[in-house]
Amino acid sequence: MKENDPINILSVPINWLICKFVNLYSNFFVLYYMEEYDLTILLIAYNEENFLENCVEKVIQTITPLDLKYEIVIVENGSTDDTFQIAKKLSNKSPFIVAVHLEKASGTNAMRKGYSIARGKIVANLDVDLSTNMSHFKELIEYTKDYDVVTGSRYLDPSMVKRTLDRHYLSLVYNSIFIRGLLGSKILDNGCGFRAVKREIGKELYDKIKDDGFFGPNEFLLRAQRKGYTIKEFPVRWTENYRRVGPWEIFVTYIVPVTKLWISFTFKKNQ
Fold this sequence. Notes:
By secondary structure, the chain is an alpha/beta fold.
């Protein structure tokens, strides 16, 4: 090929452009995936089309005065409504909102996915329907300065809870007999969805959890206690906004994983 060949002449700027593109893409990749935030808000969203936008708006309003570098990660959890479309719309509007989709609804797997994406030193997990009053959010984050795991409590005085009586007492019995009695938890409320955890600790513990249903948050706190991590439980105001399944269905759903975990803790080492 001759030196003045048009193809040879064009190859120089083309190669330069390719190198520039690769360099820019690499820088973007590094900035996006390596940049660390103070905080990740992790929202697991299953059929939350009526709550998601309001939740994100309230989260932004609450965090902005705190002067924290943060991101919001929405894990759309196999919804059958328009939750993912709403999540994508929110993500497209803002560079600090990330939306991912899971084909199949899950519990622990959705949390693992969220933690694998999270870039915050602290990961705060909230119920999308904002059952826990967001007035407690600053307190939740403040406690992470001194504790590895922070969790809201519906049973610690002077908490305020609004829910149906059957659900309230069933939850109390379940926590008292099975979680605290059988499995030995020192935490009063092991299932509240209002939590903040140091990211690496959260990733470690969720990788060990076997159950992929409702029981995951309970097992998380049990494993955190067994590992000796420092845990702060504090009272919150909590309102049951709506119910997906009946209380007895929830009760039965928990029995199998409780039994399996008791066997694992009792007869197997390094669990």
